DNA sequence: GGCAACATTTTACAAATGTTAAAAAATCAT
DNA sequence: ATGATTTTTTAACATTTGTAAAATGTTGCC
């Protein structure tokens, strides 16, 4: 089962040796739709790779719940503060469909980072890819109107548009659900 | 001169050996206010650490120039796409004051990443810190109004408020200069 | 000092988005 | 299937933010 991961671009850069070292610590888990696998305000001990399914990260505000990230198969999934600062996180991560994930304990992963140069660089690449994607979203907010953001999201993530509730997509795009509905309506 | 860097938190995690290996490739450079050190649409060959001064990263749009990052001393500074994807960047980086920087060629840095485990993990930490900071800004846009973002920015970055043109701060905060002016006016 | 260039604020108006509430549509569970 | 629940859309109105242009303030330079 875990061997499937080997085909994900994320892992293809690893040598066979490093892949075996890493995968030795990985365990396949499956959860039903609706499961929350990362809780805010907790130090979460696992780093996950989504093998199949859809996930979202969100923050519970006073009057609102803001979704700020979606993951599809191949995505990495972890509590930022737990992973980066070993402190409680701010985000919840919920599975929007039945999902299969591979996970590794952060303590094991951190040991590998201190032992294996390839894996350390693999971890660096993960952070860098997330970084450039996040910065791009921040910049898109400045340059593109809400309608353009929606249409591009729909074009680039057809699976998500089909299967994710619009209220979640609205907050992901940085608008209210009413505004998103207007954008969609303007198309007909 | 370069020894000063050793005190920056960014470098304090490195062992003496790794520090010497890294600093061997680093060169101190100084530029006057107004110098652009990273150009959009170019593959930029250097990774910089800002030793003193203030820098901003911006994108030239059709009608607007959007500043999306500020750096003060200790900040790392590079073309994201050059560094991460070895392809031309989207951002310009300009020095807003006379500045001293230390730089290392990306080719040298990448070699070190492949040779030295500590330096590879140091590079991982850099990306992770930038990542968490960028995500926090994206989330702040959703939860905080423009006025709150301004007041918090002013509180956390007193140097920048003092020395950076408000038009740059406005786009950094995600509002027009007129709106920023209204926010500031509302305080008196 | 005084002019020129640039930065900031102000004003009036326009456009986009938010808020609240209700209706319509879709989905879920028994 | 059908009633209950949730999601999405629609409507009316309020608010925020944007745009353009003029007024004011600031900075640097000769």
From TrEMBL, chains A, B:
The keyword Transferase applies. The keyword Kinase applies. Transmembrane segments: none annotated. GO terms for molecular function: kinase activity. Residues 10-65 form the Cyclic nucleotide-binding domain. Keywords: Kinase, Transferase. Coiled coil: none annotated. This is cAMP-binding domain of CRP or a regulatory subunit of cAMP-dependent protein kinases. It comes from Pedobacter terrae.
């Amino acid at each position: 089962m875990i061997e499937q991961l080997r085909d994900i671009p994320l892992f293809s850069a690893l040598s066979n040796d490093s892949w075996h070292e890493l995968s030795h610590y990985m365990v396949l888990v499956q959860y039903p739709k609706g499961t929350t696998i990362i809780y805010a305000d907790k130090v979460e001990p696992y780093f996950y790779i989504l093998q199949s399914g859809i996930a979202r990260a969100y923050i519970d505000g006073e009057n609102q719940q803001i979704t700020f990230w979606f993951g599809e198969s191949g995505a990495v999934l972890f509590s930022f503060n737990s992973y980066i600062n070993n402190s409680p996180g701010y985000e919840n991560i919920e599975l929007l469909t039945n999902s299969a994930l591979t996970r590794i304990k952060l303590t094991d992963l951190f040991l590998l980072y201190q032992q294996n140069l390839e894996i350390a660089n693999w971890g660096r690449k993960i952070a860098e890819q997330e970084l450039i994607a996040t910065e791009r979203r921040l910049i898109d907010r400045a340059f593109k109107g809400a309608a353009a953001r929606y249409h591009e999201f729909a074009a680039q993530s057809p699976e998500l548009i089909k299967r994710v509730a619009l209220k979640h997509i609205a907050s992901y795009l940085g608008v209210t659900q009413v505004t998103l509905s207007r954008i969609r309506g303007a198309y007909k």
